[in-house]
Amino acid sequence: MRKPILAGNWKMNMTAAEAVEFVSSLKEKVKDVTEREIVVCPVFTALRPVAEVIKASNIHLGAQNVHWEESGAFTGEVSAEMLKDSGCEFVIIGHSERRQYFGETDQTVNGRVKKVLEADGLTPIVCIGEKLEERENELTFKVVETQIREGLKGLKPDDIKKLVIAYEPVWAIGTGRTATPQQAEEVHAFIRGILSQIAGEGVSDEIRILYGGSMKPENVSGLMECENIDGGLIGGAALKLDSFVSLINYCTMR
User: Fold this and answer.
1) Which of 37, 60, 67, 95 is catalytic?
2) What secondary structure, in 3-state letters, does 147-207 show?
3) Are 116 and 163 in contact (CB under 8 A)?
4) What band does 163 get if pLDDT is binned at 50, 70 and 90?
5) Are 90 and 119 in contact (CB under 8 A)?
6) Which of 54, 53, 14 is nearest to 38 (CA)?
7) What is the pLDDT of residues 69-117, one digit of tens each?
8) In this structure, are strands 37-41 and 5-9 parallel, antiparallel, or unpaired?
9) Active site (annotated) includes residue 136
10) Could you tell me if 40 and 59 are in contact, meaning their C-beta atoms sit under 8 angstroms apart?
11) Which of 26, 43, 70, 157 is the most buried (most CB within 10 A)?
């Protein structure tokens, strides 16, 4: 069975002190949760303080980005080993905002994924998804397939099964729009089909595919009833304690 993941991507929000206060409260409210994985992804400066608070709890720590080299003259970047040293178990790769604002490509995603897998001990959450104009031009499946094949190029099935995929309909992030459960499930099922082609049905059946397009308490039930949706990569709703807890409590083993 695929264990749902609720991953909060905090983006550029919360100081270290604010992050510590948030996870201290979260830890108490979800301490009895066992049937889903809970992940919080703070800014780099809050990773270590948050790691200390959630140590020995059921909350996992994730980062929002990683470089494709181990070290070197890459000002402002952080390596997979540095993230592990900070207590991370997950790392988001290829988020739509990284693609939109910071020049992320399928090729740089591929490099980051490979380096994270080499480091061992970190799980990549690989983000894919189409823009509004691509959906309107009926290019969703073409875009998603290209992002998967290019982003995972050169990986063996044993590597691919270690990944988490997050489908982000970019047109539904921060816009107030949300994909219907039917729209989301259609793409999730397509993604699982592509993964089956490149890694085998056994691997594709194991991989967890998260929905990353404005999941919130008001729409979680419809989304999580879909066969191929295994949780959420959550933005705004993960910054509010009550809404994040509500999402966590809804999701159960599939």
Assistant:
1) 95
2) HHHHHCCCCCHHHHCCCEEEECCHHHCCCCCCCCHHHHHHHHHHHHHHHHHHHCHHHHHHC
3) no
4) very high
5) no
6) 54
7) 999 999 999 999 999 999 999 999 999 999 999 999 999 999 999 999 9
8) parallel
9) no
10) yes
11) 26
Residue 200 CB contacts under 8 Å (≥ 6 apart), including other chains: 157
User: Per-residue pLDDT for 50 more than 60?
Assistant: yes
Predicted confidence at residue 151, as pLDDT, reads 98
Collapsed DSSP state (helix, strand, coil) of residue 227? coil
Look up residue 47 and give its amino acid: L
Would you kindly state where each structural domain of the chain is located, as residue ranges? 5-250
Q: Write out the two tokens for 45.
A: 């400066």
In this predicted model, what pLDDT tens digit does every residue of 194-223 receive, in sequence order? 999 999 999 999 999 999 988 999 999 999
The pLDDT of 62-74, averaged and rounded, is: 97
* 168 among known catalytic residues: yes
What six digits make up the tokens of 231? 């949780």
**72 burial via Cβ count (<10 Å: 0-12, 13-18, 19+):** exposed
On whether the pTM is more than 0.85, the answer is yes
For 58, phi and psi rounded to 5 degrees? -95, 15
Position 179 confidence tier, pLDDT thresholds 50, 70, 90:
confident
Burial (0-12, 13-18, 19+ Cβ within 10 Å), 45: exposed
From the candidates 37, 104, 130, 168, which is the catalytic residue? Answer: 168
